[in-house]
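Deliverable D2.4 — example input (structure tokens):
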């Protein structure tokens, strides 16, 4: 199914631009598992050349010795949660680089420990973040996507094709994408449920 034909633009934007997806899998014994994953949305127009199904996919990489991969092999039905938790751009949730940080002053750290700042001089980062969150614009919707997962044969042309796209959109996740024991998985998108902050729900099949 092509999502561009069935899903509204705001849902597609969420799927295309979210950094991570929460992936839920389930074992044959009905034991659930959730993992935070890098991913790439692949519209049918960008699917592998031999794929004539006209489906849109979510592509991700996983190690073959993980619980999620074992679950997918035995039970390919999965669920994915997309949510951009914060849309405000001014929150100080990113850590500073070393070049942006000054040299620690031992007199400002307990017992001369340069790794721990004293609380009077450095207020709680968590408290500061919560204060910022109180004034931030939060995202108004989240989407749950149900799909059917299929592992792609490692080192095949299809696997290498999707691996290159996944790496292009997630250059910071090379350790997960290029690992020797990595398997590329594609999830055929089958349905979506969107809920906003007012608890309004829309379902798309």
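Example output (designed residues):
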């Amino acid at each position: 199914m092509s999502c561009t034909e069935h899903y509204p633009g705001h849902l597609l934007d969420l799927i295309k631009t979210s950094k991570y997806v929460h992936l839920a899998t389930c074992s044959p014994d009905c034991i659930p598992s959730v993992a935070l994953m890098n991913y790439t949305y692949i519209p049918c127009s960008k699917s592998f050349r031999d794929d004539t199904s006209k489906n849109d996919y979510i592509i991700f990489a996983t190690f073959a010795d993980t619980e999620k991969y074992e679950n997918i092999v035995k039970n390919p039905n999965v669920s994915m949660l997309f949510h951009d938790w914060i849309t405000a751009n001014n929150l100080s949730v990113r850590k500073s680089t070393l070049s942006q940080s000054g040299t620690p002053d031992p007199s400002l750290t307990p017992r001369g420990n340069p790794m721990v700042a004293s609380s009077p001089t450095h207020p709680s980062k968590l408290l500061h973040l919560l204060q910022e969150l109180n004034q931030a614009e939060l995202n108004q919707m989240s989407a749950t996507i149900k799909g059917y997962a299929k592992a792609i044969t490692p080192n095949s042309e299809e696997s290498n094709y999707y691996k290159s796209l996944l790496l292009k959109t997630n250059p910071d996740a090379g350790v997960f994408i290029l690992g020797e024991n990595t398997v590329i998985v594609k999830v055929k998108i089958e349905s979506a449920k969107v809920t906003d902050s007012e608890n309004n729900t829309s379902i798309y099949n």
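Confidence is low (pLDDT under 50) at residues 93-106, 108-121.
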